[in-house]
Design goal:
The protein is about 15% helix and about 30% strand. The protein is an alpha+beta fold. Strands 10-11-9-13-15-17-25 form a 7-stranded parallel sheet, sandwiched between helices. It has a 7-stranded mixed β-barrel with strand order 18-19-23-22-21-20-24. Strands 42, 43, 44, 48, 49 and 50 form a 6-stranded antiparallel sheet that branches. Strand 5 (about 90-95) and strand 6 form a beta hairpin. Helix 5 packs parallel to helix 10 (about 530-550) and helix 6 (about 265-275) packs parallel to helix 7. The radius of gyration is 27 Å and the shape is globular.
Length: about 850
């Protein structure tokens, strides 16, 4: 059951501060405001999530951690016997041994509670669904993105192309018939191995009309969706498009059908297959936002790295949903989690306007028809410019015309629906800040008129022309290459860290906004998509170049080497201030693979997680290794990034960290290493995520080497989780309503439901059944939910259920309460301040 809810909780609150003038001295804390307030397009509601499958982890270690296949077989047989005896002879969907010891099983929440109590069970966790990444189509050369990271230098000047390196792509499959990707499948082909784990019809999202949770695997991982072919092209296309490492070999592990979502247990099965196939690099442009590094997909990915495979994953596209939005597997401890930066140029379809005859590049909106390639129409604008119902909507005078509407105030879907209802023949959306947008108009109303987006500058130009007279536009089949106004800055969609355990995520950034790459032949062969899904394969391809150039590099060494030579980028909110964007948005900064390959200096560890500043200053040891031919003296320093706090609404500020070193310089002889101490603290106000970079500047005009650091200002457990009371609800066949006076029958769907908004991630959520009269605890209502994500939006909620099972039996008729106890992120169970509790009102169980 996954049902949409709209206004369960309070709406979004945008926080404004005071701008600091460019060049201002940083003498104290300054609150900073972006040049515009972020729009609310992507936060129009939430989802209620009910698990259908669970990971059941057994106590023994998997083979990647030294476990014995024989021991695990005995352990699993013993578990199955105990489960059957307990009345839990449940369907097993996947069985694991290499990266995870256990199963995924179809179970209700009450059955999961019983499974968790069986002897030998280490943990029971929900199997989350992972939405198929929705890269919005537009169209810039991959060549311009490659130039941003130095991959063009590695290919053309150093001569490394990733030859023979084996890269696994876990995605929607690969169109291996595409000539740029080799044109065939199997031994001797570039896509030489792989497996389809799901089949074309698979879709794990039960809110979709295409819902079909039954996998039908087969040996041919072809791509009918497009995303995986685009990802593979970025890694290593070699034809019309040239990828980062054009001579790699591919393994295709298909985990999505033609539409919809996949499940985490399918991903773990695909990871085990990639391990058996001895792949050297795994790219996963997939993620489940707001999750913990302890989630099974992240844990399995860590074990792949320990087994020698380099794992690269997108950090997520939930930037509009606020901080703490990074997702698994990218938050995995040993995974390279990748953020997205904007490409320098975009190649776009165009229309022309009169009277000046200029050509305007546009991006088509997702969930709207493809724009035509011919035809002329009049353009009109509306008085309030934004086209939102709250501001009067779209007047009927636009009928028969294309309407110009500015971004902001309401969703793109609402603007398009209003224009369509008023009789408009098309919509031109223009941005309210610099850069381009990839809009979606998916919503309750089906949009059947073309909707396109243009820049703020182009929109203002058309608006000015309309002030002076009439304007017409002509659709064309031509494309043009345009400068990207946000070039090199963080993409609007890229997710914020930190991870919920305060580990530093993302790790590094690469171009992911507006990337032109391969696409299935039946879908046109080429497309431009945007997303961290496009940034991750750029890094995966770069790792292939690194392994080609330095084949002895260990999997455990790759990330720190890439981070050492990345370059921090300016804050997206106001680059004119000269302030670097936050470490929790860009990690070490923009990838520079040419510098990493040529590196003669390394500093380890490659990143520093400071934890809570409440604990006081933190001291770390950093080791500088010099593999060059001469001694080098390094001057130590620090650079600061902008700080941010807030979950769904953010405020930004700057106060440099207190960074001191055991010595101001360090001299390292050739082929030697030296160690220095660095101590870092922060005086930022409570709740800010902050960070920066420790710098090592050599005296030989070599590249400055950096180590990013990040932490949380104040007391982490002071962040509230239950910012509103859970809602006790009953299902009436059409929606969730307040319980009836007759109580719950516990028959069919008439179970006890709670809609629970979690404002922050939590270590554990516990549901206990109480006697309503005495308050005595009678037992657990469901298994403890460990490592819970936060709710996606300020109006989102998780659905928790009690089916009336109590200590193995159905609870007798009577009056009960449910108590929620939530252990905060990294909380100490022995400290009462670290647990939030809420007890429901009394309700009646009245079953036949």
């Amino acid at each position: 059951m996954r049902r949409k809810i709209g206004t369960l909780l309070a709406g979004l609150l945008l926080v404004a501060g005071l701008s600091a003038p460019a060049g201002a001295q940083q003498t104290g804390f300054q609150e900073l405001t972006p040049l515009y307030n972020p729009s609310t397009e992507s936060v129009a509601g939430g989802e209620i999530e009910v698990p259908a499958y669970y990971f059941v982890e057994l106590a023994g270690a998997p083979t990647s951690d030294g476990g014995s296949v024989t021991s695990m077989k005995k352990e699993k047989e013993a578990f199955k016997g105990k489960a059957k005896k307990a009345g839990l002879d449940l369907p097993i969907r996947f069985e694991y041994q290499d990266l995870f010891n256990g199963f995924s099983m179809k179970a209700t929440q009450s059955q999961a509670a019983k499974l968790a109590k069986l002897e030998g069970v280490k943990s029971v966790q929900r199997v989350y669904s992972f939405a198929q990444p929705d890269g919005a189509e537009s169209s810039p050369d991959l060549a311009t993105a490659i130039a941003q990271t130095g991959a063009d230098i590695v290919q053309n000047e150093m001569g490394y192309t990733g030859k023979t390196i084996k890269v696994a792509v876990m995605d929607t499959g690969i169109d291996y018939d595409h000539p740029d990707l080799g044109g065939c499948f199997g031994p001797g082909c570039r896509v030489f191995t792989g497996w389809d784990f799901v089949g074309d019809a698979y879709d794990a999202n039960d809110a979709n009309p295409t819902y079909n949770p039954i996998p039908t695997p087969d040996p041919f991982p072809d791509d009918c969706a497009g995303h995986g072919s685009h990802v593979a092209g970025i890694i290593g296309a070699n034809g019309t498009v040239k990828g980062v490492a054009p001579d790699v070999r591919f393994g295709a592990y298909r985990v999505f059908g033609c539409n919809g979502s996949t499940d985490a247990d399918i991903m773990v099965a695909a990871m085990e297959a990639a391990l058996k196939d001895h792949m050297q690099i795994l790219n996963m442009s997939i993620g489940s936002a707001f999750t913990w590094p302890q989630y099974p997909t992240a844990v399995a990915a860590n074990r792949l790295v320990k087994a020698g495979m380099i794992v690269v994953a997108s950090i997520g596209n939930s930037g509009a949903d606020g901080v703490w939005s990074a997702g698994a597997p990218g938050v995995g401890e040993d995974v390279i989690g990748v953020a997205s930066m904007e490409n320098t140029h975009v190649r776009l379809a165009t229309f022309t306007i009169t009277p000046d005859g200029s050509s305007i590049g546009y991006q088509g909106a997702t969930a709207a028809p493809n724009p035509p390639t011919s035809g002329t129409a009049n353009v009109v604008k509306i008085a309030n410019t934004n086209g939102c119902t709250a501001s009067g909507g779209v007047p009927g005078s636009v009928a028969g015309n294309v309407v110009l509407i500015q971004r902001g105030v309401c969703t793109f879907a609402e603007k398009a629906a209003n224009a369509q209802a008023a009789g408009a023949t098309g919509v031109i959306l223009y941005n309210n800040t610099s850069g381009r947008i990839n809009p979606t108009v998916a919503g309750a109303v089906v949009i059947n008129i073309p909707v396109v987006s243009i820049t703020m500058a182009d929109g203002n130009k058309i608006a000015t022309l309309l002030n002076d007279g009439s304007v017409s536009m002509t659709w064309t089949d031509a494309q043009g290459v345009f400068a990207n106004q946000g070039a090199g800055l963080a993409s609007s969609f890229t997710s914020y860290g930190l991870a919920p355990d305060l580990s530093l995520k993302p790790d590094i950034a690469a171009p992911g906004g507006n990337i032109y790459s391969t696409y299935p032949l039946e879908k046109g062969g080429y497309a431009t998509l945007s997303g961290t899904s496009m940034a991750s394969p750029h890094v995966a391809g770069a790792v292939a170049l690194l392994l080609d150039a330095r084949p002895q590099t260990k999997a455990s060494e790759v990330r720190s080497l890439l981070q050492n030579y990345a370059s921090p980028q300016l804050w997206w909110g106001n680059p004119g201030l000269g302030i670097m964007d936050g470490v929790n948005r860009q990690g070490a900064g923009m990838l520079h693979i040419d510098k990493a390959i040529e590196a003669q200096t390394r500093v380890t560890p490659g990143k520093l997680a400071l934890g809570e500043s409440q604990a006081g200053p933190k001291t770390f040891q950093l080791t500088i290794s010099n593999t060059g031919k001469d001694s080098v003296t390094y001057t130590l320093g620090a650079e600061e990034g902008i700080a941010v706090r807030g979950t769904y609404a953010q405020s930004w500020g700057l106060l440099p960290s207190n960074v001191t070193f055991s010595q101001p310089t360090v001299t390292v002889k050739q082929n030697h290493s030296e160690t220095v101490s660095v101590t870092i603290s922060s005086d930022l106000p409570q709740g800010y995520q902050y960070g920066g970079w420790i710098t090592f500047t050599p005296d030989n005009n070599g590249e400055t080497v950096r180590v990013p650091y990040a932490g949380f200002a104040g007391d982490y457990q002071a962040l509230p989780v239950l910012t509103s009371a859970p809602a006790l609800r009953q299902w009436n066949g059409a929606g969730f309503v307040a319980p009836s006076a007759g109580g719950f029958t516990l028959q069919g769907d008439d179970l006890v439901y709670f809609l629970v908004h979690l404002n922050h991630q939590s270590t554990r959520v516990r549901m206990e059944v109480l006697n309503a009269a005495t308050g005595a605890v009678l037992g657990l209502a469901a298994p403890d939910e460990m490592w819970m994500p936060r709710s996606q939006t300020s109006t989102g909620a998780f659905l928790f259920t009690w089916d009336g099972t109590l200590n193995g039996s159905i609870a007798p008729n009577g009056s009960y309460k449910i108590k929620f106890s939530i252990l905060k992120a990294l909380g100490d169970e022995s400290d009462p301040a670290h647990t939030e509790a809420w007890t429901s009102s009394a309700f009646t169980v009245n079953h036949p």
